[in-house]
Amino acid sequence: MFFKKQSAGADWLVAGLGNPGKKYEGTRHNAGFDALDFIARRWNAPAPRVKFEGLLAQAAVNGRKVILLKPQTFMNLSGRSIGAAANFYKIDPAHVIVLCDDVTQSPGRVRIRPSGSAGGHNGLKDIIARLGSQEFPRVRLGVGEKPSPEYDLADWVLGRLSGADRKAFESRLEDVANAVELIMDGRLSEAQNRYNR
Question: Which of 41, 105, 115, 175 is the least buried, fewest Cβ under 10 Å from its Cβ?
Answer without folding.
Answer: 41
